[in-house]
Design a protein that fits this description.
Blueprint: E1 2-5, H1 11-25, H2 38-42, E2 47-53, E3 56-64, E4 69-75, H3 84-95, E5 100-105, H4 109-117, E6 121-126, E7 133-138
Parallel strand pairs: 4-5
Antiparallel strand pairs: 1-2, 2-3, 3-4, 5-7, 6-7
């Protein structure tokens, strides 16, 4: 598996991964409101890395480098549990300065467990009812 910086040529596949992964995993959200264009809106001014193997993109992470913040980390549903997320997370950590932060939706139990198993700590739960999330930190 190779981790590399994404180019605009990768965006069509990254849009699909973002949409499919959210539709599969975000049980609390209305999947009918999710679109391919969400990727472009949700990654403005971000540094995007991706994982690929044999020319196929397996997942990506988008980072807001000025704040040492991981904004998105998504793996194609067909590659869940195969170490893609862990490699993207480690490459993200290697690119930024500690402490690094991210937000994880409170209802996203699998993601919360994934981050905690990889050394992240919950800092504070924020947001209004129905939109709660944890601010998490890696030192």
């Amino acid at each position: 598996m190779k981790i590399r910086v994404a180019s605009k040529l990768d965006y069509p596949e990254l849009r699909n991964i973002y949409l499919e992964s959210r539709r599969k995993s975000f049980h609390w959200a209305n999947s009918d409101e999710m679109t391919l264009e969400d990727f472009d809106k949700d990654t403005v001014e971000e540094y995007i890395i991706l994982a690929e193997e044999d020319g196929q993109i397996l997942g990506f992470a988008s980072l807001y480098l000025p704040d040492d913040f991981i904004h998105n980390l998504f793996v194609h549903p067909g590659f869940f549990g195969k170490g893609v997320g862990r490699q993207l997370l480690q490459s993200s950590i290697d690119k930024m300065n500690k402490p690094i932060r991210l937000k994880c939706v409170s209802e996203n139990y699998k993601a919360m467990s994934f981050y905690e198993n990889n050394g992240w700590m919950r800092v504070s739960e924020e947001g209004k009812q129905g939109e709660r999330y944890w601010v998490m930190e890696y030192k």
